[in-house]
Task: structure prediction
Amino acid sequence: MKKKSIILFFIFIFSFIITGNLSSQNLEKVLINKHYPVYFLGLDFSESKFIGNSGVSGYTIRDKFFSEWNYLFYSEKKKYNIGEYIKIDNSSRLKRNPENWARMAGNSIKYRTDIVEEIHKSVDPKKIVLYSNYNLEDLDKDKLQEVVNRYDFEPTSPVALTFIVNYFNWLTGESKIAAVFFNSNTKEILFSTSITGKGSGKNFRNFWMNSIEDILGKLKKIIDKEIVK
Result:
């Protein structure tokens, strides 16, 4: 029975890779399978704004913190276990060890933050910081699609996730991102949602990464409610 399940799993993956026929209706099947590989592109700051005078320049934000924030997904994988947040945990129902499940789900994530790091090089540091409190609207579907279309890589798995940052607001202590699942073969957006997180901590780097941890917890609940039927 186990061998049959493994064979069916690889047929499921192979069919998507060959045909690229992955739709939003199939996304649930991907997320309930702890083995199915998902690309994670990290935090994309190409459309982001930093609101308020934090004392950190646009040049420092782009040249230092963009990469440091994304590197934390590698260096602190236990804390920022993307697989644990986006995969649907059925370990309790199946009487499996939840720690083992989280580890296997984490191993299914393929980190490709290098893709957005290349894009970040073209961000104008003079336009990153807004010193007044702006009421920025959510990034609309057309803008999200425009951002996704910039990603240039050859996928071996047709599912990818990116966090497109809308803003980090120093005045309110909140960040907002669009979490976007897309078909990495066709660039079609499968699911997107806008999420706000609350920052905490003493230094600039950790303050905003703690807001991302807050967002991850909210994303998990959204996936459970809106994707898994």
